Amino acid sequence: MDTVRFLDRLYEAAALPDRWPAVLDDLARLFGAKGAVIFAAGGEGAAYHVASPGIDQFFQDYIDQGWMELNERGTPMIAALQPRFVTDTDFRPVPELRDMPVYRDFLIPLGAEAAAGTVVQGAYHDLSVMTLEGFSSHEAARAALPDLDALRPHIGRALSLMSRMYLGRANAMVQGLATLGAAAGVVGRNGLLRAFNEAFTDRFGDLMIEHRSRLRFTDKALDQAFDAALAASGRTDSEAKSVVVRRTPDFEPCVVHLLPLRRIARDLFEADGLLLLAAAGKNKSLPNADLLRLLFDLTPTEARIARRLLEGLTLDQAAAAERIAYATARVHLRSVFSKTGVHRQTELVQLLGGYS
Fold first, then answer.
1. Whole-number Å distance between alpha carbons of 277 and 268
2. Domains parsed from the chain with CATH numbers
3. Over its length of 356 residues, how does the chain's per-residue pLDDT go in tens digits?
4. Does this model's pTM top 0.90?
């Protein structure tokens, strides 16, 4: 591989994240690994990963099966924070590795016990980890270290740039939601607040406590609903929830919507947790179809039908306006109900439009 060309693509990926999978694949091929992955986390609780196509499912399974949460494999590398690439055998002898559950039950059966990785510490309490997975042997992983270290200064700069772009995006998104009159905050799966707009702090400043374990609310119903939504946020079947926060001498009533971040929304907000939305009763703005698609993972047709209902049309009228059959519109509406966690049109309108 042309090193100059690879470095050009590496820096392009730092600014254009959709190019990372191909760049990681090139890097893995260059060193004889099955694939490569980047995992990054911010001090606000944000976390995300990008993997080359060949190991994307492997890494997702690693997360879904709980190995990432325990992180027995990666903890020594992160704790050491050495300015170089390291291998599994830098921290434990091979016999010990083979007895560890993550190796015995997951990595070895998949032929992925040998890896090389590095940690890049960012300037804003963020860090990025890059690993090359699935070398043919621990010896092959170790043999790759000198050439990987030669590339590490470039990899470090690219990861730092990518990290700042990703971690800054959530703040930009919640500030944009403020233009709709919505108090918005993004919470990572660890329960910590990672981005919010001024309207969010104005509305919830006296109701929320940023505890080290997770964000907490003094309103009992809201806190319980938040805890349940957070626990379910990693599941594909997690649903949006809405909670009425009642009036107090110091607080106007409102409805708080707890939205699991899915697919496109997860990419845009860069969090695997929840989007918290609330607005004052006087807010009369209606979300447009694009925003509905983002927040609830609706299809284009589902979003347009929801928008028609918010405008006051009946389902018959919405179907006619969209030039589809009424029966087809009903199918789309049932899907909207499932994704938003409501069961009736009146609940849908209250959830998406009035906030009152």
1. 16
2. 3-167 (3.30.450.80), 179-282 (3.30.450.20), 286-356 (1.10.10.10)
3. 567 788 888 888 887 778 899 999 999 999 999 999 998 776 554 567 889 999 999 988 998 888 887 888 988 998 888 889 999 999 999 999 999 999 999 999 999 999 999 998 765 556 889 999 999 999 999 999 999 999 998 898 888 777 766 666 666 667 767 766 678 888 877 788 878 888 888 888 778 888 777 889 988 888 998 998 888 876 666 676 777 777 677 777 677 878 777 654 555 555 567 888 875 544 444 555 656 665 666 788 898 998 899 888 999 999 999 999 999 999 999 998 887 777 888 878 877 664 33
4. no
Q: 């929304």: which residue's tokens?
A: 265
